[in-house]
Write a structure and sequence with these properties.
CATH architecture of the largest domain: 2-Layer Sandwich
CATH class of the largest domain: Alpha Beta
Helix content: 25-40%
Number of helices: 19
Number of strands: 33
Radius of gyration: 30 Å
Shape: globular
Strand content: 25-35%
Structural class: alpha+beta
Largest sheet: 9 strands, mixed
CATH topology of the largest domain: BirA Bifunctional Protein, domain 2
């Protein structure tokens, strides 16, 4: 049987079961550059047979997609190197996402050191130079188990059991190394031009703390040494912008061992935090939200009604009070349902939009807690819209408009939208899920928004639209979310009276734009490198007398600035002016008002911008400029 294969607009007939590698040889493609293929746009190993007609693309070492193949293959070379250096080592699994890094977990009676990583890296380059071709081998389950048993890979035998009956079982081999793997992999080892092992850490087998501790090695790889150098340079920039470094340095927040996963916001950080909330509160007036305050602690009966006790209990803080079980709230939706149910609602009352900045608590494991991005105590710019089915499209559209207004003001421009559909673990009927998913699709398409479908990643109670933003370092962060919920209103028995005096069940739209404010704070801090716009800067200006004899006039200017509500500080210490200017610049303060003889005699201000530019201006013009930028929330300085 033949299949039709389209390559760069030309059509070919090939026997069914032919591989992209075999096709590449027939059409004269340069095998030295061939690392992979795409079948109808989907990544495919060049040794995997084609069983249907398709559009076939070859992925070369120069292609943007090459990194995925290269890093996956480097993962196997890592495991090979470790096995050569420590032959009794057992290998577990690697990484699913190879877009940036690779990793492998090892069961070994040894903790890897930086010196070990250098030794392993050297061995990896030796293996690359051996120029082995990657081979793909299909086996039945019995053969696969025999191969793994012969090689002493007990962990891999357990992983073999995870592969469903009827699914292909494949191994990949280079040289003497062979491993259970789905692929895809490059053509041969020498196509890897640069490798760097980045770090190592201890992890529990299958993420269960009752299982043995494994050693994980992280690394990255590229087709050329130049690409590797560019990546390492980028990585250093990431380190410099790390919010866990910037936060304490700029005196925004601290972390303390006595409150793991619960950050302390210092006065400057609290100002920024509250300014973000203030911004959202202004938009709540525009978009028709009513803010509420709800309790922190509820009996477990509430969480059983909502479904969280069954589906989310492991992530909750549960405690006993007077022989009754209580739970700290991990989210606000059940509390908002109680408020909605507290009075009789008419169809004319809908939509009802409740917003809540209350504290939330989630029992994150200590191993995943990280700075502000993964915490146990946080707040969300959380809201729930109770509406009729005929209002869904308009309400979702309004939220989408609000998302774009917030992100454009805060300087995030590249936004990717995903529609997440029904997961394996869900509540409610499939028919209701289908209706909910269609409603979100219709709203996206009406607003002409391009989106990708993220299958199986919806919340347990409903599908959702997620917004991924790209920061200045081209990292993606999932922040805003719109979740459509037909289930929770029914679990709480929520009702409204329709135009025919009949009881109807409302729909809930769960909505957050910043998401966790703590997490957004971290993202924004790294995005700006701590250089906040004027409206978010805890200190807008410092007044710097050139010497002690100008302290009196500097104090007058300082007092006047405060009377104009300019957040200012007076730095009249004994340090040299140049030192105080450098200090202000290191603290990312927008303006330095320098006071000397000329300023005192003329009344004109010399304002040094944090960018290094000097401006001569009147006091009134300066104060008005600061006031305008604070109100308009523009990002410019002058």
């Amino acid at each position: 049987m033949e299949i039709k294969v389209e390559i760069e607009g030309r059509h070919y007939l090939f026997p069914k079961g032919i591989t992209p590698l075999e096709i590449a040889k027939k059409v004269g493609y340069n095998l030295e550059k061939l690392v992979g293929a795409k079948e109808d746009g989907t990544i495919k190993d060049i040794r995997e047979p084609l069983d249907k007609s398709c559009v076939l693309e070859f992925v070369s070492v120069d292609s943007p997609e090459a990194g995925t193949f290269i890093r996956h293959s480097a993962e196997h070379i890592l495991a090979d190197a470790v096995k050569r250096l420590w032959p009794d080592t057992q290998i577990d699994v690697g990484r699913k996402d190879h877009s940036k890094k690779f990793q492998y977990d090892f069961l070994i009676d040894h903790k890897f050191t930086p010196d070990d990583l250098e030794k392993i890296e050297k061995k990896m380059y030796e293996i690359i130079a051996e120029d082995h071709i990657f081979e793909r081998v299909e086996m039945d389950r019995k053969q696969a188990e025999e191969v793994l048993r012969d090689r002493g890979e007990v962990l891999k035998i357990e992983r073999l059991k995870d592969i469903p009956e009827g699914e292909k079982i494949t191994f990949y081999k280079h040289g003497d190394f062979v491993d259970l793997c789905r692929g895809p992999h490059i053509f041969k080892t020498s196509q890897i031009g640069g490798i760097k092992l980045l770090d190592s850490s201890g992890v529990y087998y299958r993420g269960n703390e009752n299982n043995p501790m494994l050693q994980r090695i992280y690394g990255t790889a590229f087709a050329s040494d130049k690409e590797l150098r560019d990546f390492l340079k980028y990585r250093e920039e990431v380190k410099l912008r790390d919010h866990r470094v910037l936060g304490p340095k700029l005196k925004l927040f601290i972390l303390n061992k006595y409150a793991p996963g619960s950050p302390f916001f210092l006065p400057k950080g609290a100002f920024v935090y509250n300014k973000l909330i203030e911004f959202l509160r202004e938009l709540y007036v525009k978009y028709g939200y009513k803010e509420v305050i709800t309790p922190q602690l509820f009996t477990s009966d509430l969480w059983k009604i909502s479904g969280h006790y069954e589906n989310y209990r492991e992530a909750m803080f549960l405690l006993e009070v007077e022989n009754n079980e209580y739970g700290l709230k991990p989210m606000n939706c059940p509390a908002h349902c109680l408020i909605f149910a507290s009075e009789l609602r008419s169809y004319r009352d809908l939509p009802v939009r409740f917003a809540d900045f209350g504290r939330l608590h989630r029992n994150e494991r200590s191993g995943v807690i990280s700075g502000l991005t993964r915490v146990r105590s946080f707040a969300q710019d959380d809201a729930h819209i109770f509406c009729r089915e005929d209002q869904i499209e308009e309400e979702v559209s309004n939220v989408i408009n609000m998302v774009h207004e917030v992100y454009s003001t805060l300087g995030f421009k590249n936004i990717k939208v995903e529609l997440s559909t029904r997961p394996e673990k869900f509540i409610g009927s499939i028919e209701m899920w289908d209706t909910a998913e269609k409603a979100l699709k219709d709203a996206l398409e009406k607003n002409e928004i391009e989106y990708e479908v993220n299958r199986g990643e919806g919340a347990f109670y409903g599908p959702k639209i997620d917004f991924q933003i790209e920061d200045v370092l081209e990292r993606e962060w999932q922040l805003a979310t719109i979740q459509l919920d037909y289930q929770l209103p029914r679990r709480f028995g929520l009702k409204y009276i329709d135009s025919g005096s009949k009881e109807r069940v409302p729909v809930i739209i769960h909505r957050a734009i910043l998401g966790s404010i703590e997490r957004f704070f971290a993202v924004m801090l790294e995005q700006t490198n701590g250089v906040f716009p004027v409206w978010l800067s805890p200190i807008v200006a410092v007044v710097l007398p050139v010497s002690d004899k100008f302290n009196s006039y500097a104090l007058e200017v300082f007092d006047k600035l405060r009377n104009y509500s300019v957040r200012a500080e007076l730095w009249s210490g004994s340090e040299k002016l140049s030192y105080r200017i450098r200090k202000a610049q290191s603290e990312k303060i927008p303006y330095m008002v320098v006071i000397g003889k000329r300023e005192q005699e003329s009344g004109v201000l010399t304002v040094r911008l944090r960018t290094g530019e000097n401006i001569s201006t009147t006091f009134e013009d300066f104060a008005n400029k600061v006031r305008y930028l604070s109100i308009s929330r523009e990002s410019k300085l002058w």
